[in-house]
Write a structure and sequence with these properties.
With about 550 residues, the protein is of the alpha/beta class. The protein is globular. Strands 6-7-8-9-10-17-18 form a 7-stranded mixed beta sheet, with helices on one face. Strands 13-12-14-11-15-16 form a 6-stranded parallel beta sheet. A 5-stranded mixed beta sheet has the order 1-2-3-4-5. The protein has 17 helices and 24 strands. The structure holds zinc ion (2 copies).
């Protein structure tokens, strides 16, 4: 996993953005200042952004470290072996710029992805002008079960000088998150129906809790007589989520008013702590009926699969850009566990992948860029192939200065005073077609209504469609057009206009060579392929 640690200089200020380094030696090396930075901002509690913070704090206790309140609570899970993690991280409020040093302020903006995850808007103000940097951290535009997506609407036209954006998924395209959830729920449902137990190893924070919430609220599972066992650091993550409920989306808080979010022995499907079981109970509970186990991905999985009467479906999260690495590690681990070898040979283990994305896909990333409209775009946090895919996009190359800095390299980002902010490209809308007995429905995302041109097309509620080569073109019929069509006076017969064209029948154009083909035309209309009605008197 790529680890993130960025040193940003704005004027005299040095800001460390995240510190996912397991070994902070590069930050201890020769410096011309007593501290490696003036302050540290941490976007979220995932280890690839936070693992090095504790060593950094021990090495430089006077170095201030900040994050959102939820992140400060989640951070200690990164050091499970530490008896007591000191409270070294200070909580910052959402959406309210804080001035840390003279002229330097930062604002936290919810970034989706993980509860507490923040994007950062940094502003450095001089007498001449203000310089702004927007750093996304890890982000997701769609809402997940336990965290709302990044509020793109609020940021439209922000025009930061520099945008530092993660490119974890490159230009890959994924289906909508709801579809991904349904696919996964479907697969788990099928396994359970066939008597298979399901083992879900996940990272400590984020995915595991999302899966639990999905299983708790998806119609495939609600009311089912089923045990979901949660173990390891995933269970510790659940406990911290529960202690911070007031920070969660209101839908989650509502849910929690009616039934416990996680630990629940009463309402089906039950959610229970695996750690509460004695070894004897483990084999009786997990050996007798199909159940679901959620645990951290580095746990010893053999402790759940010890019974030789159950067959298991092992579901591993797909990580685009790092295909196969997790599967290989898990399979190696399973195959090297003597207790499981017989079961693997007996075919009682199936391993499959699923996708429940917590980063933006290519479409989401470009959408963010076009909405913010920065001068410079710096891509980080993806395989070099994926980042290259992004910088090769013509729609980005034409509009922004693109950068993919290599590890340890310094990038200068000159800010042009006269930089012309490029216009955002035409939005494209993807829809769905539903064929019915007597009609065809085309549904489009309702974001389309925010375009000022929509009013015109929706004016009368009537549209016309026609083929243009392979493409179907839709056109709205305006009020004016409807009125004028009925009130039109006939034209003199010697004028080159639709009324006098052989291809005009029933006030429609039937000339396939005409751009108006198939459309209702106005009688005084004209097009280059006009053909006069042969005069019978000649
Ligand atoms: Zn993350
Ligand atoms: Zn990350």
């Amino acid at each position: 996993m790529a680890k993130i640690c960025l040193l940003l200089r704005m004027g005299p200020h040095r800001i460390l953005l995240d510190c996912g380094l397991e070994n902070i030696a590069p930050l201890l090396a020769e410096r011309d200042a007593p501290l490696p930075a003036d302050l540290v901002l941490c976007t979220h509690a995932h280890p690839d952004h936070a693992k090095g913070l504790l060593s950094l704090h021990y090495a430089f206790p006077q170095l201030p470290i900040y994050a959102s309140e939820v992140t400060t609570e989640l951070l200690p899970l990164n050091w499970p072996k530490e008896a007591k993690v000191p409270q070294f991280c200070q909580a910052l409020p959402w959406r309210s710029p804080v001035e840390f040093r003279e002229g330097l302020s930062a604002e936290l903006i919810p970034a989706g992805h993980l509860p507490g995850a923040a994007a950062l808007l940094l502003t450095y103000t001089t007498k001449k002008r203000a310089y702004t940097v927007f750093y996304t951290g890890d982000f997701l535009l769609s809402n997940s079960r336990l965290v709302d997506g990044l509020p793109l609407e609020d940021l439209r036209g922000l025009k930061p000088d520099v945008l530092i954006v993660e490119g974890s998924y490159g230009t890959a395209r994924f289906s909508h998150r709801r579809q991904q959830e349904n696919l996964l729920a479907e697969r788990i449902y099928r396994a359970i129906a066939e008597g298979q137990s399901v083992l879900l190893p996940t990272p400590t924070l984020g995915l595991g809790q999302e899966l639990l919430m999905l299983l708790r609220s998806h119609h495939h599972f609600t009311g089912r007589d089923l045990d979901i066992w949660v173990d390891g650091t995933v269970a510790s993550g659940c406990d911290i989520y529960l202690s911070m409920l007031s920070h969660f989306p209101s839908a989650v808080q509502n849910f929690a008013r009616h039934q416990p979010l996680f630990w629940d022995e009463r309402i089906r499907p039950r959610v229970r702590r695996f750690a509460s079981l004695t070894p004897a109970e483990v084999s009786s509970q997990l050996g007798n009926s199909a159940s679901i186990v959620l645990t951290n991905q580095d746990a010893d999985l053999s402790q759940y699969c010890c019974s030789d009467t159950t067959s298991w479906l092992l579901l591993l999260p797909q990580q685009p850009g790092r295909l196969g690495s997790v599967e290989r590690a898990v399979m190696q681990m399973l195959e090297s566990t003597p207790a499981l070898q017989a079961q693997i040979q007996a075919g009682r283990f199936t391993v499959e992948n699923y996708l429940l994305s917590d980063h933006c896909d290519g479409a989401g990333t470009t959408q963010l860029i076009h909405n913010l409209r920065p001068q410079h775009v710096v891509f980080i946090h993806g395989s070099s192939a994926y980042l290259n895919d992004l910088t090769s996009l013509e729609e980005l190359q034409n509009r922004y200065h693109l950068h993919t800095p290599s590890l340890g390299a310094q990038v200068a980002l000159p800010i042009g005073e006269t930089f012309l902010q490029p216009a955002a490209p035409e939005a494209r809308y993807e829809g769905e077609i539903i064929e019915m007995d007597t009609a065809v429905l085309i549904s489009l995302p309702n974001a389309i209504v925010t375009d000022p041109r929509w009013q015109e097309i929706a004016d009368t509620g009537l549209v016309e469609a026609r083929w243009q080569g392979e493409e179907l073109v839709l056109r709205g019929i305006s009020q004016r057009e409807l009125l004028s069509q009925s009130a039109e006076a006939p034209m003199p017969t010697n004028v080159e206009c639709c009324q006098n064209c052989i291809h005009c029948r029933g006030q429609r154009c039937w000339n396939q060579a005409s751009p108006m083909f198939g459309f209702r035309v106005s009688l005084d209309g004209y097009c280059p392929v006009f053909e006069g009605i042969p005069n019978s008197e000649n």
